[in-house]
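Board notes (copied after class):
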Amino acid sequence: MNLPDDKLPVRALILDRELIQRVYSARTAHGNSPHDEVWDGTLILYALPDNEHQQLRSTLAVLFAEIAPNAVLPGANVSDRDADWMENYREPDVVVYLASNPAKDSNTHWVGGPDVAVEIVSPSEDPRLKLDFYAKIKTREVLIVDRDPWAVELYQLQGGKLVLLGTSSLPTSVVLTSAALPLSFQLQPGTLRPTILITHTATRPNLDRVILLSFRLL
């Protein structure tokens, strides 16, 4: 049967390789950088990031780079293998690889998890499904920024699993403190939308400061 447009599901499983090639070619024909992933041989296509998503990603990357120079990338391919890595990789919105991290930089991708991975949630996406993979490759922390409704979640690697440290939302605006970076995160009310209050937690001179990320309505 032919489904009407308003009845189409938000997800589809395509088992026809020729159709997959046509869909992917159309998706990338205009030079889009879709930040898609492959999970154990299955291609995962995400909604293209909107302006707000990209603003969040770039602002967090710049901020993290001030704290950890030469360790931050606004998106990177992260895999559990070197050979045939395109069969299984994820692409977080922001990654932090500190100098002490044993992961291997293979130029096209990283083999091993970052110290911090940031996932900004897009429509119909649930980055929590990636947590087992991130734990497997020893990602120390995962920061998830949800926008519907707004919330910030911080997961930390404990006993081989990424465990939820806490959630900062408007009903419960708790402070989430990173163990990998000298930063804490707190969601607070804003004029047009919530803001993320990011506080530097180090005590060295010239590093004590409070940075407010406020995202205006685009």
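Comment from the instructor: The helical segments are 17-28, 51-67, 131-136. The two ends are 40 Å apart (CA to CA).
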